[in-house]
Amino acid sequence: MFGWLGRFVVRRAWWVIAGWLVASVAIIGLSPSLSDITSAEQSDFLPSKYESIQAIKLSQTAFAKQATASALIVVKRTDGAALSDQDSAAVTTLADKLKARNIPATEGYVTGPQALAPDKSIQLINVGLEAPTPDDPALLDAIRSLRTALTEDLNGTGLSARVGGDVAAYVDNEDTFNGAFAIVGIATFVLIIVLILVIFRSPIAALLPIIVIGIVMQVTTSIIAVVGKALDWNVGQDLQTILLIVLYGIGTDYILFLLFRYRERLRAGDDKQTAMIVSVQRVGEVIASAAGAVVVAFLVLLLASLGFFGSLGPGLAIAVGVMLITSLTLIPALVSKLGRFVFWPSKAWQHPPKATVSRKLGALVGRRPALVAVVSGLVLVALAGGTLMYKADYDFSSGFPQDTESAQAQADLGRAFAAGAAQPTQVYLTTDNGEPVNMQTIELFRSAARDAPGVGQVGEVVLSNRQDIVRIDLLLNINPVSNEAIELVRGDLRDYLHAQAPGGTRAVVGGTTAVFADINTANNRDLSVILPVAAALIAIILALLLRSLVAPIYLVVAVLLNYAATLGATVYLFQGLQDKPGVTFQLPIILYLFVVAIGTDYNILMIARLREEAREGKEPREAAALGVEHGGPTVAAAGLILAGTFGVLMLAPISFLQQMGFAVAIGIVLSAFVMSFFFVPAFTALIGHAAWWPGHGDRAPAPHQPAGGAVELEKEPGPAVHP
Fold it and tell me: Where are the transmembrane segments (predicted)?
């Protein structure tokens, strides 16, 4: 099949290139924007069975229209003294002045005695922020306008104010975010160009992935937008960034797979067209299998209960599918026309490499497979031990610079009120039969709530436009987005409040902490389903590729062990050496995307090369040595590019970006070097021919008998295929 595909693409290269250009222009020009199906709300992705979502629905139906977000203005005296009655009155006047300015996207401006801290160190003004969507730029402009107005209105009053809250924190850290992602984008291009320049010593080869994958990125986002609109997908804002990394990661891998094999065939004496046909014939199955494994891993995310993953998976699967088609059609067509010019001006492609590092490492693997397998396996097991200490961290604010205005406002708020004042836990008390909730019942519940575990303060009753529902805000005495608070709300606090609901009523617990608690539950459930299902499906793909039942077992075990080792290494660094309370809760699924899914590519490339060497008559140990020698440089180059791209994130002054950068970088390094370079070839050499049971894929293809009776061996395509 892949031999036929290679001949078709090479013979009709100009038609393939023209077809790609026409299709790309049509798809990009006629498709909607990806932003049309993008959502910013974490709660949008939770199923309605979760209690925090039920609380949101009660709020939407029973209370006046809620603001999209809010800002907290923290007012205090410039000399640090307690606020006097005169100062408190001035804060009320300040709220009225701000309201009179009619700052766009703001509403409410609520303050008063209830907003005065018990120690009178600060007084709050709560400002509602209203916009069509949570990511509307008008919200950011509102924060900036509020800060300008406060500077003017407080001049000469002896009072100062800081604006805090999630939107204010985003404003303060916007430049940091943008700078971090700009660094990633630039680093991706620079690393690809520099490393391919080093490998092939050709600017043509270095620019080829940048240009082609850039076009594929536009085509992919357009296709995802079309499919998403048709199927009513709701994708997260992170999809665009993840798409960029996935496409440049796997795209560069697949292009390198082809270029390395193309150069090898040119060195063997093939002309430029025959070299590409043989390359597609030999590497096409590997690329298709690798892409198939990644697509399957991404599609397994459809089993996730979190809607974000359910739409992220198909989107990434589409991206990999487009890149697969590109790698087997457009890239071979372009390179077959460029020919040796793809390596210009270098002449190194003309000469086989002399003694190389990969040859020496291959010799070591072939000579001492038991030692190499044990040492590399023990490295992975030792790192995997760190997963036993894993804790999820949901506190994004602690990972940002703490010298910003919003961070200082949060610190003032935490000192003066209960720690959960900025993000109260909202409890909705509702009757079972639709009858009004009477005040005696409400007070009975409020009194019980004061003794609830982890509760520092109980707010006043908030009446709704329905008599059968009221809301009571509880302020936790611990950080509301800490792992401890999330565990508290998910367990003891919810259980207590449910039990204390008076007869005929029920308590529904919501708020930010409750949403994160439910996300934690859903995330744990999803990983327990996704990992084993993905492992089973990847094993099936490997079995079909290798015609073996043995090799897929230890290959999948190696991938899962590598996943655990990556997570463990991250825990050792951040929870151990840096004494962080945990690692970001998003990390396990991020590692699934980039370590399990994409890391499988390196395994497939190496095991396919081992099989190829074995089918040419090499014994297991010699096949392992040659497999590492010939396949190692490709794996190393691809791994370094992807790992380096993520590693740059460690330069960002944001904790969760540092964690993500380190985790994925070390995961790819372990996948490419420890697992694929050493463990897999060493273990394969160690068990020998049994690795290919029952299909015996390591045997040379059997000769077939042509019509004339003479035996004819399978041959690679020759010059006769030229048009």
Answer: 12-30, 180-200, 207-227, 239-262, 283-309, 315-335, 369-390, 527-546, 553-574, 589-610, 631-656, 662-687
